TrEMBL record:
Keywords: Membrane, Transmembrane, Transmembrane helix. The keyword Chaperone does not apply. InterPro entries: DiS_bond_form_DsbB/BdbC, DsbB-like_sf, Uncharacterised_DsbB. It comes from Qipengyuania algicida. This is Disulfide bond formation protein B. The keyword Ubl conjugation does not apply. One of its GO terms (cellular component) is membrane. SUPFAM superfamilies: DsbB-like (SSF158442).
């Protein structure tokens, strides 16, 4: 059974979009010190799911089902990004407790608390042409997820 070129490209996009966005998030975090707030983490979780679902599309039939689920997960991350961007721009209120604390095994909890940066969900740490990282996630995820659906719905050309 051969896979159509549209499905092949949709499958590739469904893997590449979340993988590149997650890679960018980790580069921003560990390379440039832009630590994620709680709502930033919320945006990452659907991308992790999308990566797994897109990988399943490469190994377990029916590939189209896994790609559809991956595209939905990408769109969910985009929706969370839109909500988070709205909080950053002051369009609506977000969550009030936005500090994230992970205490490593065997570490002193007080030292961890004192050395953990407080990252607010309502203040963008970085912007490019006035758009925050959450806003960029919204734009890229929404356009990417819709592109995957467009490819899945597009008829194959006879060329």
């Amino acid at each position: 059974m051969t896979i159509s070129s549209n499905l092949w490209l949709a499958r590739l996009l469904a893997l590449a979009i979340p993988a590149l966005l997650i890679a960018g998030a980790y580069i921003a975090q560990y390379g440039f010190g832009l630590y994620p707030c709680e709502m930033c983490w919320w945006q990452r979780y659907p991308h992790f799911a999308a990566i797994v679902l897109a990988l399943l599309a490469f190994i377990i039939p029916p590939a189209r089902l896994w790609v559809v689920l991956a595209a939905l997960a990408i769109l969910v991350s985009g929706a969370i990004g839109a909500y988070h961007a709205g909080v950053e721009y002051g369009w609506w209120y977000g969550v009030t407790s936005c500090a994230r604390l992970d205490v490593p095994q065997g570490a002193n909890a007080l030292d961890t608390i004192m050395n953990t940066p407080l990252i607010r969900c309502d203040e963008a740490q970085w912007r490019l042409i006035g758009i925050s990282l959450a806003g960029w996630n919204f734009l890229i995820s929404t356009i990417g997820g819709l592109s995957v659906f467009w490819l899945l719905l597009r008829k194959e050309s006879d060329a």
